[in-house]
Amino acid sequence: MDPDWLPFYPNPSTPRFKLPPGAVDAHCHVFGPAARFPYAPERKYTPCDASKDQLFALRDHLGFSRNVIVQATCHGHDNRALVDTLRHSDDKARGVASVGRDVSDAELREMHEAGVRGTRFNFVKRLVDFTPREVLLEIAQRIAPLGWHVVVYFEAQDLPELWDFFTAVSDNLATTVVVDHMGRPDVDKPVDGPEFELFIKLLREHRNIWSKVTCPERLSKSGPPALDGERHAYRDVVPFARRLVETFPDRVLFGTDWPHPNLKHHMPDDGLLVDFVPHIAATPELQRKLLVDNPMRLYWPEEI
Ligand code: 0GY
User: Could you report the per-residue pLDDT of 248-263, keeping only the tens digit for each?
Assistant: First the structure.
């Protein structure tokens, strides 16, 4: 079946911003190849194949040292493409899997040995069918002893309904909860308005909750600059990401989201995404925390 989104950007530009040594791209994916790692029958979109070798080449081109690969919904609970990538990464990649309640302890252990350090719960209604909260809680209880964290993906309007679940995982299980893409704020709304304030309150009141300041290209309404324009893109997202980086400097992560699944109107130049960083993390210290210290603490704690 043909992909139903745009092909990823063919020749990303060289970023002007030089990433600090040891920088981690903390949110990216691998897809297929479908002939070897088929897509899930229940998927809501069909991706382009995006291989581990293409990901590693992009990592080197942009100046990252490591990757955190996140299982996307189009592969369902079949984490084989992810695990295969981790095993071929020379320990330069860690992973976040997606598992069901039927996962065995042996499978969890095997994934851990390959480099998986978290599981992802997706609440975005266009991407997944509903899973009862008690099932997710059961999975969170199973992975907590491995030291894994939980990555959650949801849209801002759903936060009130999800609040109790997130805080039960972060406070009762003492498990780190990492929110994808800043909880997907509507960037037409004010950065100090009630919707984003609720997200800030979630992080302020719960020290185990982190946020990825990722996906300006998904959240932006203003979009990239004109092709011959300056390299400051997705400006309407900057105040949201910057507020999180400055308020919670030790609990933020950055990543490219390559190969940008499911984008149907605009495919970002990954070089421009790297040039987004100095606009949201203005000092070398904030940049080092965002790109190196925080992801290393979460994914390679044994190396610090
Ligand atoms: C992302 C965003 C998206 C897709 C998924 O798991 C997924 O399929 O996360 C999206 O469509 O917003 O993080 O790649």
Answer: 999 999 999 999 999 9
